[in-house]
Amino acid sequence: MGATLLEIRELSKSFQTDSKTVQALRQIELDVKAGEFVTVIGPSGCGKSTLLRIVAGLDTGYQGSVTLDGQSIAGPGIDKGFIFQEPRLFPWLTVEKNIAADLSLRSPEVKRRVGELIELVRLNGFEKAYPKELSGGMAQRVSIARALLRNPKILLLDEPFGALDAFTRAHMQEVLLDIWKRNGTTMIFVTHDIDEAVFLGSRIVILKPRPGEIRAKINVDLPYPRKKASAAFQNFRYEVLSEFEKIDELSWGESGAGI
Amino acid sequence: MSIRQANAAAVPTAGRKRRKAEKTRRKLSHFLWGAILPATILIVWQVLGDRELISPLLFPTPLVIADSFVWLWNSGTLNDNLFVSLYRTFAGFGLGAGLGLALGLFVGLSRSAEKLLDSTVQMIRMIPHISVTFLFVLWFGIGDTSKILLIAKGCFFPLYIYSFLGVRGVDNKLFEVTRVLGYSRFKQLVRLVLPATLPNVILGLRLSLAIAWVSLVVAEMMGASSGLGFLMMDARAMSDTPTVFVGIFLFTLLAKITDSLVLFAERRLLAWRDSFER
Predict the structure, then answer these.
(1) A88 vs B174, B182, B277: nearest CB
(2) Local structure of A66: helix, strand or coil
(3) Cβ–Cβ < 8 Å for B246, B65
(4) Less packed terminus of chain A by CB within 10 Å, N or C?
(5) Cβ count within 10 A of residue B95
(6) What is the DSSP secondary-structure string of B20-74?
(7) Tell me: the pLDDT tens digits for B171-223?
(8) Are A212 and A51 in contact (CB under 8 A)?
(9) Would you say residue A248 has pLDDT above 80?
(10) Is A146 on the interface with B (CB under 8 A)?
(11) pLDDT at residue A102 tops 50
(12) According to its UniProt record, what is one Pfam family this protein matches (chain A) (predicted)?
């Protein structure tokens, strides 16, 4: 774990709807060190996606400061990799061309790196396949490779495995941890699944909704690979769960799917 | 049934060659089935004509029409007129479709261009196409210009409309991806908007081509001194119905060939589409 990479200070954001102002985030304070794996968890409407989109530079118009490597975030760019909930591949490009995107595969350097990434996300043999031929998990791995090719300082993942079935999801979590271990990429991973948050994160940030505020930050000092059935894992799980129970019952009730 | 099963069983061992042969065989059988009805009609037509049960003047038999075709071809009349017609069609199609594509993309990309241009274009589109033919002949003469411009006018609108719709239909989620990947405006246009618009453009091309042939026939019949349409009008004046049939046959064939070319291009270019699984 290195120096502080991402610094969020007094971050607030509100949206203007037709009649009223909705406070999405209030007074968020968060430091992320280089090489950390931070999972952000909270019920729907807690502003966790908004937080991630602000860091990515996709959402603007906030109060407070957000700096990456000391630079205030001006807009989206390749130094901040973003994985959406859906893979969002270009349907007219093959797997390898999707990963390369605007970079030319005719460059031997790009070609070599794309090959390595295809290996890393375990998609060998699918280089020439079109997105329509891929399963959801495979497509999401392509989008992860696409972000990694650009050597981002930080990888932002917005419920990337939310649409996958339980088995695929477990497999994807292992693939992601493998990438993290090998590349040391700093990750912020948004989820509403407690198991996922505890399994992946070296630190868990719990948000509460209306307005979105940080409820707790929990260091998960469990060695990887983690065993979901172990007592230590379950203890962390209960710790997160009990934080949730302190959050207003009403705002939580509608989206308890992850528990 | 048993033959088919035997073939299927042989596939894994005999490999690709056998599978290709099977595919060709299936295509041939498909073609033969499709040919039954037209062939029957031709034969009945010929027999009825031979027995003089139908008027040889109104319905010259297929053999007479074929004779007429050969004669026209050998005399060079058909060649000359055919090439004139082809030239007009492709010049008009290129001009109209090209402009329609360019303007459709432009108006699709720019809201202010849409505000300025779209209502005018839509109004012009509502002018019945055929009704201005004779005006075009008056304005631009009976030569190539009036035909090319009429065809261009017809070809313009499908491409304008479909490329416009294509641009507006580009998935906003993919736009976000290009922002995250740091694409410039130019890269967004070339690597996202254009490929995403391609299915619409190809649809527009097909419609435009169909309009091109219809426009050609009308323009050449209303006032021309050459071309397939002129040949037919000339023959009609002489009650030379076999030549009229030759003209109809050629127009049908040309339209079919160009349509098939676009379909072929579509198969190649849009192989990535979900709906193109065969």
Answers:
(1) B174
(2) strand
(3) yes
(4) N
(5) 17
(6) HHHHHHHHHHHHHHHHHHHHHHHHHHHHHHHTTSS-TTTS--HHHHHHHHHHHHH
(7) 999 999 999 999 998 999 999 999 999 999 999 999 999 999 999 998 888 87
(8) yes
(9) no
(10) yes
(11) yes
(12) ABC_tran
Residues of chain B contacting A86 with CB distance shorter than 8 Å: 173
pLDDT for position B149: 94
Identify the residue among B172, B181, B189, B269 best suited for mutation to test binding to A, counting A beta carbons within 10 A and taking the highest.
Answer: B181
Distance CA A152, CA A136 (A): 23
The region, left, alpha or beta by phi > 0 then psi within -120 to 50, assigned to residue A15 is beta
Residue A226 is assigned to a structural domain of this protein: yes
pLDDT over 60 (residue B258): yes
**Averaged pLDDT, A189-199:** 92
Chain A residue with minimal CA distance to B198? A92
Whole-number Å distance between alpha carbons of B46 and B122: 48
Contact B180 A102 (CB under 8 A): no
What's the pLDDT score for residue A251? 52
pLDDT, average across residues A146-156: 92
pLDDT of residue A111: 93
Best mutation site among B180, B192, B201, B202 for testing chain A: the one with the most A CBs within 10 Å?
B180
Q: Average pLDDT over chain B, rounded to whole?
A: 88
CB contact (8 A) between residue B174 and residue A90: yes
The residue range of the domain holding A188 is 4-85+148-163+176-258
- Helices marked H in A150-209 — which ranges? 166-183, 194-200
Residue in the block written with tokens 């040309």: B254
Opening angle at CA A98, ends A96 and A102, nearest 5:
110
Angle between helices B194-222 and B77-109 (to 10 degrees): 140
pLDDT value at residue A14: 87
Tell me whether residue A40 is in a domain. Answer: yes
User: Average of pLDDT values for B82-95?
Assistant: 94
CA-based radius of gyration for chain B: 24
Read off the pTM: 0.79
A171 assigned to some structural domain = no
Q: What is the pLDDT of residues B215-232, one digit of tens each?
A: 999 888 887 888 999 999
Amino acid occupying residue B268: R
DSSP three-state, residue A194: helix
Residue A212 per-residue DSSP state? B
Residue pair A154/A188 in contact by the 8 Å Cβ criterion: yes
Residue A51 lies in a domain: yes
Q: Does the structure show a pLDDT above 90 at A212?
A: no
**pLDDT (average), residues B244-260:** 92
Lookup: tokens for B153: 């006018």
CATH code at position A218: 3.40.50.300
Helices (H), A31-107: 48-56, 95-100
Mean pLDDT throughout A80-100?
94
Are residues B177 and A84, on separate chains, in Cβ contact within 8 Å?
Answer: yes
ipTM of the complex: 0.85
| pLDDT at position B143 | 85
Contact B272/A132, CB-based, under 8 Å? yes
